[in-house]
Design brief:
Strand content: 15-25%
Radius of gyration: 18 Å
Shape: globular
Order of helices and strands: EHEHEEHEHEEEHEHHEHEH
Distance between the termini: 6 Å
Number of helices: 9
Largest sheet: 8 strands, parallel, barrel
Number of strands: 11
Structural class: alpha/beta
């Protein structure tokens, strides 16, 4: 049967000492799994130091945060930390964000989140950060270090509401969601953003091209319209069902099996070996 997922990995939910999480990550790597994402209780920023420890303790497996509350932190600080992690891991770090883990109205949170993501991307470019928004202002700020990969680590958003899913799509983020959830708001918004990207490219073909601000206002997808990315989270059986159900629908699929003990890692490895 055809491969249903780009990558199978685990979502580690620390319930004890960090050493136990490190042991699970090392075992996941030895089993050939592709990614170890770390969810700190409540999405706390302690996930980043733990990711650094995992990156130093492994050599091949990708390491990711899960549910980091970007709205609760200044994006320049997150950009520096993530770039440092990308260097420590030699390009294996991925940044998983939560847009709603801060007090405020949903519309304001979405606007703040979108601005913060744009600042992350500017900080990871070769140019200084110049940004003037409603929530953040940065003028000529040099951010170092730069990430190991051009453009910075891949970005994921965890989202439950339709509005948050659509926001993730418009920002060109991957979406990490519970197995059984309906990703239609994300997929629909992604298709609309890709169409806007095409229109923006056609409008700029005869001249110097659309400006960054014009593309952003058009709703176009950052990063040139890459395929939507879905990471399904749950028990191995739930992830397998979601991968099978959404295979062949134009999205890049991943499965992150929730892992608190070695038996969960073994289940993820069996799923990776027999994705059908």
């Amino acid at each position: 049967m055809a491969q249903r997922a780009q990558r199978i990995g685990v979502l580690l939910r620390p319930a004890g000492e960090p050493a136990g999480v490190l042991a699970l990550a090392r075992r996941a790597e030895s089993l050939g799994l592709g990614i170890a994402a770390v969810a700190a209780p409540g999405g706390a920023p302690a996930a980043l130091p733990l990711c650094a420890a995992l990156a130093a303790a492994t050599r091949r497996i990708a390491v990711a945060s899960f549910g980091l509350p970007l709205a609760a932190h200044h994006p320049l600080r997150v950009a520096e930390d993530a770039a440092t992690l990308d260097g420590i891991s030699e390009g294996r770090f991925e940044l998983g964000l939560d847009s709603g883990a801060a007090p405020g109205a949903p519309e304001e949170l979405a606007a703040r989140f979108a601005e913060a993501v744009e600042i992350l991307r500017q900080a990871w470019s070769a140019e200084p950060v110049d940004f003037a928004g409603r929530h953040f202002r940065c003028a000529g700020v040099e951010v170092h270090p730069k990430p190991a990969r051009p453009g910075g680590p891949p970005l994921w958003a965890s989202a439950d509401s339709e509005a948050a899913m659509a926001c993730a799509a418009r920002l060109g983020l991957g979406l990490a969601l519970r197995a059984g959830a309906d990703p239609a708001p994300y997929l629909n918004a992604h298709a609309a953003a890709r169409a806007a990207e095409t229109r923006a490219g056609e409008a700029g073909a005869g001249g110097r091209g659309a400006t960054h601000a014009a593309v952003r206002e058009s709703g176009a997808l950052p990063g040139g319209g890459a395929a939507p990315r879905l990471a399904w989270i749950g028990a191995a059986s739930e992830v397998a069902h979601a991968l099978g159900h959404w295979a062949g629908r134009g999205a890049e699929l991943e499965g992150w099996v929730e892992a608190r003990r070695p038996a969960d890692l073994e289940a993820a490895a069996r799923l990776a070996a027999h994705p059908g």
